[in-house]
User: What shape does this take?
Amino acid sequence: MNDIPEVHPLNFALKYNPPTLVLHYRLGKDQTQEFAHPVKVFLKERATAAQIVNELVREESIYFSPNLIPREQVTRRTSE
Assistant: This one.
């Protein structure tokens, strides 16, 4: 039995203070209830957008898996 929820991303937003990505998603294909998952982004000095995305994918793989959201899309958003 798989205990990992089936996440279906809808969109995500960027907050600047504090730096946070907020993923809006549904659980399961047929669900209508939407959820928001805020992820604080800890910016390291001289970190590139690609490095930040790598850490997001590693730490929040259920939500930011490249199978769900293209890595390039997350990189563009974190570069803003």
